Amino acid sequence: METTHRVFVGDARDLSAVDDESIELVVTSPPYPMIEMWDDLFADLDPAVADALEAGDGRRAFEAMHAQLDRVWDELERVLVDGGIACVNVGDATRSVDGSFRVYPNHARVLEAFESRGFDPLPDVLWRKPANSAAKFMGSGMIPPNAYVTLEHEYILVFRKGGESREFEPGADRRYEAAYFWEERNRWFSDVWTEVRGELQALESPDDDLRERSAAYPLEIPYRLICMYSAYGDTVLDPFWGTGTTTLAALCAGRDSIGYELEAAFLERFENQLADVPALSRSVGRTRLERHREFVSQRRADGSTFDYDAEHYDTPVVTKMERNIRLREITEIEALEADDGGDYRAIHEPLSLE
To answer: Which residue ranges traverse the bilayer (predicted)?
Structure first.
């Protein structure tokens, strides 16, 4: 199986290189309005942002920032197929502007933006970020009433374009081979994710400054979402590509991908680690299989039995739908010539157990 991965250096407000209704899944994490590290970016996109912040008008700045994201959401509505899914990882912001502290509800504003474009909201996910500090309060500390709850979670908002789910031909191999294990389904489709960092191995960034500027999420997050909401042969789009975590997840999951990124430096960093991607994909697949075997051992120890066996692996499974699961690993990856970004091709084979 071959997958292709294209990264354009350009502005996500204009995805003109992506055809109408050519994307099955969007997985992305945009810059968060009213988080200070993104002020300069939004001000470059619209000087009205800087004017509002200088005037101490946080609400006007918040809306001006989201107006720039709205232009990206317009493009997503165009490029997604009917029934396609958009997963948007976003956090709210807390900030003092002109001496007034408040929360800026980014997730609510993004939800409103997608609904206004005809998307159907689906149940969302909260994932808890590892805390970097033991301090669990903001404001007046232990003296009431002026302390504030700290934000330790982000939202993964999930939307479907149009009112109908995608349809597949009966028994489609590319869908059934992309199935997940029963216990994965129970964990992944929970509405609260904890300790996602470290679930799967990720490539280390040699450039901490780039990673910080991208605010990259853990590999586990886009990998889960790609497995949950797409099949083999689908194309995943990330309009805010950053360090390429979504593309790495698509490579490991055996899906095609497209990314848009303003800063060419991120692309160079990504290409420097291409040689490590096959080992990463193998590690991800083997981790999933080993975790399933641990589940089988525990279930048997508890006295349960299994009615089905996986066709491609020496292990039982809980349901009939899991029998054809076929994990993939990358055996070859190469960078192709591209004038306006990066172009990559990967060869996937069934996961080797040797």
So the answer is: none
CA distance 63 to 287: 43
The per-residue pLDDT for 215 is 57
Per-residue pLDDT tens over the stretch 170-227: 989 999 999 999 999 999 999 999 878 645 655 554 455 544 555 578 999 999 999 9
Residue 140: predicted pLDDT:
66
25, 229 contact by CB (below 8 A): yes
**What residues pair up with 169 in beta bridges, in sequence order?**
none
Domains and CATH numbers, the chain: 2-288+325-350 (3.40.50.150)
Q: Give per-residue burial for 62-87: e unless 16+ CB within 10 Å, then b.
A: bbbbbbbbbebbebbbbbbbeebbbb
- Beta strand pairing status for 80-90 and 316-317? unpaired
Please say whether the beta carbons of 127 and 221 come within 8 A. yes
